[in-house]
């Protein structure tokens, strides 16, 4: 039984595509986590890197953020630097539905194939069409 309000018990409309960690050097952080996990890179450049989960699960990605500053050490309640990406069947419909749930749309967007939205707590997340 779900603790969500009845209007939120309907089937979801998004699938977790990737977890992306913000950083200053995506290639270096991908090399670190690739070595730690034994995962192979799918893509690496100076702006973005993706490690594929060999068990078929969600990949782990690293995105370069200009002026990146790590969270303060020793502060368990400090700011975190990651965002979630979701695959959707219809980008326009999913955007509308996410906004109806409480997301907002910032003016800045990365491109036509990824819609950046902000969750009600202020965390960015991405919606992208799933190519079939």
From TrEMBL:
**PROSITE patterns in the record:** VOC
User: Where is the stretch described as Disordered?
Assistant: 61-80
InterPro entries found in the cross-reference section: Glyas_Bleomycin-R_OHBP_Dase, Glyoxalase_6, VOC_core
Annotated VOC domain ranges read 15-132
What protein does this entry describe?
Glyoxalase
Task: Please name the taxonomic classification of the source.
Answer: Bacteria, Bacillati, Actinomycetota, Actinomycetes, Kitasatosporales
């Amino acid at each position: 039984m779900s603790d969500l309000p009845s209007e939120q018990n309907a089937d979801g409309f998004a699938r977790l595509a990737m977890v992306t960690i913000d950083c200053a050097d995506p290639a270096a952080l991908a090399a670190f986590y690739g070595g730690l996990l034994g995962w192979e890179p799918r893509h690496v450049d100076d702006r973005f890197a993706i490690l594929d989960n060999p068990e078929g699960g969600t990949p782990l990605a690293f995105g370069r953020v200009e002026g990146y500053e790590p969270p303060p050490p020793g502060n368990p309640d400090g700011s975190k630097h990651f965002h979630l990406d979701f695959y959707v069947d219809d980008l326009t419909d999913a955007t509308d539905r996410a906004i109806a749930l409480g997301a907002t749309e910032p003016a800045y967007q990365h491109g036509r194939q990824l819609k950046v939205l902000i969750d009600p707590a202020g965390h960015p997340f991405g919606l992208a069409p799933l190519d079939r």
